[in-house]
Amino acid sequence: MTRTDITFSSGETYCAAWLYRPQGVAADSAPRPIIVMAHGVAGVREARLDAFAERFTAEGYLCLVFDYRYFGASGGESRQLLSTARQREDWTAAIAYARTIDGADPNKIIVWGTSYGGGHVIVAAAEDHRIAGMIAQCPFTDGFASGTNLPMLTALKVGARAVADIVAAKFGRGPLLIPSAGEPGDVALMVSPDTYAGVHKLNPHELPIDIDVSARFALDIIRQFPGRHAKNVTCPAHFALCARDSVAPAAKSLHYAQQALRSEIAVYDVGHFDIYVDDAFEANIADQIRFLQHHFPIE
User: Cis peptide before 74, with omega less than 30 degrees from 0?
Assistant: First the structure.
């Protein structure tokens, strides 16, 4: 395969991306399906998205893997500013850009999102019926269900930080940051027993990845219910759910996944962060490849 660093415009700045092509497949080759991919919350491409893209590319698919604005290698200020609306704008821009890539079939765009990005792709596929397929991995589907996983005292402290961040923004100050992941008892967005170690499993090479986000996001996430859009997804849709998910409860995600018109659902007896690595990753990626080969065979 080849991997090329590219950028595309989104909003007032740009998103950085990797474009993967299978070995020996030139830009002027016959058009083939392209998978547009992004992470969740503070996730960036280096946090195991390359592992998925490499396996998809080995099967003959193009992949466009991008970072959201304000994160990773993408542009925009202030850094680590997490906005649901702007991330969805980034998805719209990425999909539009993918349709212009030489060698990509504009009618065979597959959107792939994980965790918070899994919720984004549900919304994207529901709103853009030109999207040919969707893969939502351990998807965030319900803000109330995820929010109630936080201990009450932690939720109150996070809420106070969020309000302080909003007030600071009114005075033109940069975001007040909060860790997206911490240990039980920490003031962070995710504090289940498996969270902190799980996030660090996604960074096996110990790259300097910043997991902090703007605190105001805590008051945004509880108002988001992307799973409610699943009933409007008409394309083939693969849901990879984690039965022991401490971040995006599987029962609620299963409820929504069953409403998609052409859903295929795989449930793994693992936690939210296990599905990216080791044996769970192998089982998960094998099922995703089978889904792709069935609905979007490489000709």
Answer: no
